Each structure stands twice: as structure tokens, then as C-alpha cells.
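Q: What would this complex look like in 3D?
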Amino acid sequence: MSVNINYLLLIPEILVLSLGILLFVLALITPRNLQKGIGYLATLGLLGIFLYMPIAWKYTGMAIEGMYQVDKVAIFFKALSLLAGIFVTAIAPKYMEKIGYYSEFFVFAVFTVLGMMVLVSATDFLTLYLGLELMTITFIILTAYKRESAIGAEAGIKYLILAGVSSAILLYGLSLFYGLTRTLNIVDIAAVVKNNGITPAFVLAMVFVLAGFAFKISAVPFHMWAPDVYQGAPTPVTAFLATGSKAASFAIFFRFFYLAFPGIKEHWVGLLATLAALTMVVGNLVAIPQTNLKRMLAYSSIAQAGYILVGFLATDFAGFKAIMFYLSVYLMATIGAFAVATVYENVTGKEEIRDFAGLSQRSPIMAAVLVVSLLSMAGIPPLAGFAGKFYLFYPIIKNWGWLALLALIMSMVSVYYYLRVVLVVYRDEPEDKTPITLPNSIYFTLLITMAVTIVLGVYPTPLAKIAQQAAMIFMK
Amino acid sequence: MITLAHYMLLSAVLFAIGLFGVLSKKNAITVLVSTEIMLNAVNLNLIAINKYIGVDGFYGQLMAIFVIAVAAAEVGVGLGIIISMYRNKETISLDEFNFLKW
Amino acid sequence: MLSPKGAILIFFLTGFLLSIIILVLNYLLSPKSKSLIKRETYECGLETIGPTWVQFKGNYFMYALVFVLFDVETIFLYPWAVRFNVLGLFAFVEMVIFIGILVLGLWYAWKEGALEWK
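A: Here is my prediction, written as C-alpha cells for the whole assembly.
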């Protein structure tokens, strides 16, 4: 029994795996004083693979017979995962030097990117579970990376227990689907619905799978892990979690629901609308009293997940195009904000909002990037977040008017807590007026994220066209 | 006659026992063991479905082996984190780790 | 003569009753000391010194952890070994890569001192 494997389509994964193994071997054999090169090698390696992605855009198909589908959506999300990996390995070096176990961090970061790449292409229960667990378990290790920190250990054990339980629930739902469809493939679930209709076992399995995925995207009844894990993890790891993990989880969530339940949309759309509404409301309202920047960004990212969930409700591929566009824009803004937080925490050791006072006097570029990123997340017009929210909310105005109105109101509420940070940064006086010098890699990261956020806000067409081309595959 | 329903009922009961253990126990190791019980319930489900109604092939058993391997890796990581917890606070009772709230 | 289920039931009852009988006999026949001092725990004939809950050495845990991970690797090696002839070159190369990645893990554990026994 030989399986049909198309190696051309698997080149990005093979390259990322080789990079991970190379970094691991180098981490073992280089002497202590040369270890800094591993960080640069990780960033350059991931950048090289990212530059291969536009070439990979042309080659789509089924890479492993029935189990691993490389289509334009998968390539888009692989590129997003690589981008998140590049930015995180660029901002991490100085921070990780203070924590210790420097080179293993980059090995784990590369393997996390591999897990995300496997997850977004999965069309089989086993591939889905393996990609999901590779990504999740590596993130658990990265969360508890600071060994002398009780907060890090607390965040790590909370993430471990909750992720373990939600994976078990997801897996139970998948095993019930296996019982219904008798194969491990996702597309066969749609055939079962056509033949047998909706049975109670089907609804139970669907709810279990929905619970498992909703945990990963931190939708509201399943969001309790996100603030604690985001606050307790080292800041570059939080940046990676907030961008890469969410993007990959949304990709597989959408793929699963559209491959498995295409014809019965009216049954699960109401449930997702309720989840989206709850997530937006709770995320935004609980972010208001937060005083810790990382925790506030965690609640704001829960609210962003609520906005993205709205994209599931649109009637055709416009919803998914909006999701892809918004996830890219959100990645840029989040990386910008967390890069500033990383540098500031490395220099001063503080992460409360009031300790960012007067950042504009100490480092104008950091203040500018922080402001641009936060306003983009709020959805203020000339920035990319506004274009993203427009693409997301416009298709649902006709059928889900109440949800669009709620989203607009909650966006306005979010402007309050973002602007509060902007005020502290620009209006208050700093305690210590020494200017902050930035390492080159972080300087370039900040400039690139700010430039992309501003340019995409004014001229979103290129990215929108790419997202549209990719989303067309769901139009069947 | 032992039918598929018996196995699935046992699997559901095991899953519920595991879930109860995760939600109510204070010792971190007991919580990890309860997570393992939940994953083993899923394994039982997969293998029983493969034996009784699966299409010819062994995919249920194959997936069960992979789930066992992933669960082992997760518990390895979990025990590492528990050691880190113990080094920081001299206790592994989850009630003591409540700094991160609201 | 007796169905298999009946045999299992008799085994179960016998085991259950046997344990109960042994415990009850122990209670009835053992000498009971009248004073409280005779019932205290002792260590080599004298009073106990130090806390009675002794910590186990960390090395046991590290060895157990490395054993579990390589045992799970072995689970994957068994089916391949059974069907080695049929599976051909592709499976061989793939298993060499798999074992190679795990050897890297072993190298890391060795270098970080997880296999030391102090």
C-alpha cells in the first residue's frame, strides 16, 4: 500500500523541518560565546523560506493522498505563520539573553512554525490533531520558559491543563465523527449529512469539535486561559501566541466547518453569531479596567477574535477573504505593539501601563509604533484595521444587522482603552529620561510593521486581491 | 452480546470521570492523570469503532497509537512544568497558584 | 459444567472473601498492647530522627522521563519491524529520519546531564 506523495508541494515544510534540525544541532555543538548567531540564523532561515512562498503560490494540490491539502488558503496561512516566526525571532534575542537557555528558544520557535504549517493544510483528523498538538505543546514549553518565575510556571500549568482538556474534548468529537463517517477524512462528514440527515450524535460531535476549536481562538465561554497565559509568558512568546496561534486556529476552524458542514449552515450559524457577540462584548468590556499592558492586549485580542468570528457568518467567500485580510493586518499591529513592550520590559523590567509614561520623550519611534498599532487595532480610518473591519462587517449588515451594530458599538468602546495608553505615552512625564537605544533587528521590525499598517490602510487592494484569490476555493 | 454501544458507554463514563478529576482536584499531578484518563477514553472509542463498524483498514487503531504518543509527550512537558512550579513555591497545590486573576 | 461467567464469579468471590477472612483473623488473633507507648513507631529500636517523608532523588525522575519518551518511540518501531520486507526503501529512509530526530533528543538529554547519576 503506497501513498501518493507530491514532494514539490511539501517543500516549505521540509525546509522548515531542516532549519529546525540544523538549529538544534548547532545549539548542541557551538560553544557558549558564539550562541548569538543562532538567533540571526533562525530569522534569516525563516525569511528565506518566506521568500519562497510567492513561488509556492502557483503550485496547489493534494500533497499526501487525502490527508494534506496544499491550496491557496493553506499557502497564505503558511506565509502568515512564517511572518509571525520571522518577527518573533527578530525581537526575541536581547530578551532571551536575560532568561537563559537562549538557543533552544529559536529551535522551539521554528518547530512551532512547522506545527502551524501542518495544521492549516490538514484535511484528515490525524493530521489535524498532530499539527494542533505540535503547535500547542511547543507553545506550552515556550510559555513556561522562565524557570525562576512563579508567574511563568503558573501560566504554563494553566495553559497545559486547559489545552490538554480542550484537545481531549476536540478529539472526542472527532472520534464521534469517525463513528458516523467510518473514515478519518473531513470531507466525508458532508456526505454523511446528505445521506442520513442530522442525528443527535452528529450534533453532539459538532458541539464538541466547536468547543475544542473555540478554545484555541479564545472565544468567550472558552477564553479564560488567554489573559493569564498572555500575561505570564515571556513577551516575545505572547506576541507569537497572539498572532500565529490565532491565525492557524482560525484557518483550520474555517476549513473544518466549510468542508464538513457546507449544506447545513443554518444549524451552526446562530451558535457562531452568539459566540461572536459574547466574545466582542466580554473582551472589550473587561479590557477597560486592566492596568497591565500585556493583560489588556490579551483581552483586546479576545475581542479581535470576536470580530473575526463575524466573518464566518457571511453568505459566500467574502467572509473568508475578510478573515484572511484582517488576520494579516492584526498580525502586523500586534507584532508592533508587543515589540515595543518587549524592548521596554527588557530595558526597564516593567509592564504596567502607567510605567510607559513619557515613552515619546525616551524613544519617539517606539511611541509612534505603539500608537499606530493600537489605533489600527481600534479601527481608526487611515490605518489598516479600519479597512479590515470594513471588509468584515460590510457583508453581514443585510442578514445580521444587530451583530454589525453591536460590533460597531464595541469598536467604539475599544477606542477608549487604546487611547488611554496613547495618552499615557505622550502626555505624562517619564521618571527616568534616558533615551532608549534599539537593536537593529527590532528597529527594522518596528518600521516594517508601522509602514505596512499605514500603507494597507490607505491602499488595501493588493492584499485584498490575494485574499480574494485564495478564498475563491471555498466557492463551490 | 457485547456491542459497540457497551464500549462507547464505557468510553463516555471514563471521559466523564476524567473531566471530573480535572475540574475538582488540587494536586497538579492528579489533574494531569485525569487528562490522561480522558485521552484514553478517546482511544477506547476510536479502537472500538474501528473494530465494529470501520471500513476495512486500521485507521482507528493507527490514530489511537498517535494519540498515545502525543499524550506521553504532553505529560512529559507537564511534569517539567510541575518541577518548575515546585522550585518556585515549594508546593504543587493548584490553589496556591492564583496570582493571575482578573 | 459451569459457564465461564460463573467461574469468574466464583474466583472473584473467593478472592474477596479470602482477603476479608485474613484481615479479620489478624484482628482477632493479634496481641493487643495495653499501653500507648508500645504502639509508637520506632527506627532501629530507638526514637525516629528527622522527618519521615524522605524525598526521592531527582535522578529517578529524569531517567523515568527519558525512558517513557523512548518507550513511545519503540511503539512506532514495532509495526515497521514486523513488516520490514514489504515496506521497502521509502519506509526505511523515513524511519531513519525518525530515529535520527530522536537521537538528537538523546544527545540533548545527555549533554544537559539528565543521564547523570549522582
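A: To summarize the key features: The longest helix of chain C spans residues 84-111. The two ends of chain C are 61 Å apart (CA to CA).
Q: Very helpful, thank you.
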